[in-house]
From TrEMBL, chains A, B:
Keywords annotated in UniProt: DNA-binding, Transcription, Transcription regulation
InterPro entries: Homeodomain-like_sf (IPR009057), HTH_TetR (IPR001647), Tet_transcr_reg_TetR-rel_C_sf (IPR036271), YxaF_TetR_C (IPR054156)
Protein name per the record: TetR/AcrR family transcriptional regulator
One Pfam family linked to the record: TetR_N
PROSITE patterns: HTH_TETR_2
Ranges annotated as DNA-binding: 28-47
Length: 191, 191
DNA sequence: CGCAAACTATGACGACTGGTCTAGTTAGTT
DNA sequence: AACTAACTAGACCAGTCGTCATAGTTTGCG
């Protein structure tokens, strides 16, 4: 079933961008549509579930994108510690280049739309996929399963928190500090 | 000029509660006022700066409250590692008891109202005050200043991230995992 | 080719809530 | 009783999300 227009995709990527930088409630449908995405009526054609469905799908895309980026870094880097550092470096650059607008693409919405089950679910899956990647990388290096899990959560948490602090302070120093610490921690774990 | 009502204070504490659980944009003035806080007109008498000022002041209060709690734990606990673990335990309990509504009182607003300078500033100060407490505790134990700073940021970041994950997953496991890891890290640093 | 059926697009509309502010009432002081 | 500071009610309109009737476009089939 070939698609005939790219409207749906345009909407999704505009939505991903706006929800990423502003959060769920701060992003109005009008803004989203007037951002060149589409006329109003089209939204409810492509997303019968309205704003909520649009957000959930946009988050799934954002989550997947970051997951791919992480998988890539994990492949390329030599050493897990280095990979984590590279990943954080990438996040810091993205944040700085966007004038401290683009932090974690999920966290803002995860917090401000925690009441919506579909949205929450999308975030759970996004976070989960990132964590799983870290966990696998750790077990591949010989770390025991339960230890790998708790180390992966901690790493993910530290990165998320650093993104929050960096965005709030408009200064990527927290990310750099956390990067160094995590590298240390990971490398000690593997030795 | 004697005050005749406690309206202003009631507004602040209701605001603190709602912004804490819902964030800035998701919290409407109507909801806030009908939550028994006050009649509508009073808002702009007590807070000429409107919603923005109300939020900034409410955040300052929330930040101060948590700061005090942290200072208290840091005093009472025997050992810094234990203190961190106790603090996280307190946060986990608060989160669970509120049906996973009350995470960090600043982070939601910090992310979803990052565009407002007064609000951002209030968050910067709140986070800063928590970090300073940790930093002092570390240097008091003989950790070098720069090392103490980066360890304090990392600790704060990990806790914030864990709160985010726990709230999103509706499961405090991330907090428990991070608590154990941080205790380990802190105690290694001091030995 | 020609036609019907399915698909996609459109923006005016409505019910409602958002934050703001002015005009007014109440209470304390002299 | 007059004055002033403390407070409040509700009007206001821009903006919210969602609905709908209508129109246009593409596809498959006879």
């Amino acid at each position: 079933m070939p698609r005939r227009t790219d409207t749906r995709d345009r909407m999704l990527s505009t939505a991903a961008e706006l929800f990423h930088t502003q959060g769920y409630h701060a992003t109005g449908l009008n803004q989203l549509l007037s951002a060149g995405a589409a006329p109003k009526g089209s939204l409810y054609f492509h997303f019968p579930g309205g704003k909520e469905q649009l957000a959930a799908e946009a988050l799934a895309i954002s989550g997947g994108r970051l997951r791919d980026a992480l998988a890539d870094v994990l492949d390329r880097a030599n050493g897990l510690g280095a990979a984590v550092e590279m990943m954080i470096d990438f996040l810091a650059t993205t944040l700085e280049d966007s004038d401290f607008q683009r932090g974690c693409p999920l966290s803002t919405v995860a917090l401000d739309a925690a009441g919506s089950e579909p949205i929450r679910q999308a975030c759970v899956e996004g976070f989960g996929s990132w964590q799983a990647l870290l966990e696998n990388a750790l077990t591949a290096e010989g770390v025991a399963a339960d230890r790998a899990e708790s180390l992966a959560v901690t790493t993910l948490a530290a990165v998320e928190g650093a993104l929050l602090l960096a965005k709030t302070r408009r200064d990527s120093a927290p990310l750099r500090a956390v990067a160094a610490h995590l590298r240390e921690t990971v490398e000690r774990e593997l030795s």
